[in-house]
Amino acid sequence: MPEVVNTSQVLFDASASSDADDAIISYTWDFGDGSKGEGRTVEHVYPLPGTYTAQLRVTDASGCASAVQSTQKEIRVNAPPVADAGSDQIIAPGGTVHFDGSRSLDQDGLITSFIWQVQNQKYKQYKAEKFSHRFEQPGQYQVGLTVVDNDGASHSDSLTVTVNSPPIARMQTLLGSSRARKSCLMPRARLMRTAVSLPITGISATTVPVKAGR
Fold it and tell me: Which has the closest alpha carbon to 194: 177, 172, 211, 213?
């Protein structure tokens, strides 16, 4: 069975190696991914999850290499799961949000645990892939999801639930001034139909009187 590690950075330690009659002067590592290293303890970062066979070769002060007896170890670099809590939500007071963690995934294993935490004055915890929660008071609430896979690796994600304050309707009555408006009657001009003809030498003229109406 390969040794499972939940991080891509692995520490290799050869301090348990020994030589009965001489001192070990060099430690050569082959990490199984095409990379090599030197030293009693070395760190190596694997670029991708997967199974690798690491090999250690030691050389003592006499120059004899332990090529045949070199130690090999199989290592499986576990890919951690990816949590997906969903998108942010905006609701009214008293609304219910349905949370769904089914979009979370683990590429090389299984998700064995879903843990939700809802900030609601104090944190409330749910251990399920899906659940519903009602929010009574206006405000912003953080909801976190942590998933754990079958190798013990974990990952977290979160979303924000915004509970909007309800709108307040207000009606204001505006009272206008009660000023009395005065009406002005404009006089109307009227034409009198009576006409007086005055004889003028060489010219005949007609005078039309105009009387102002009341």
Answer: 211
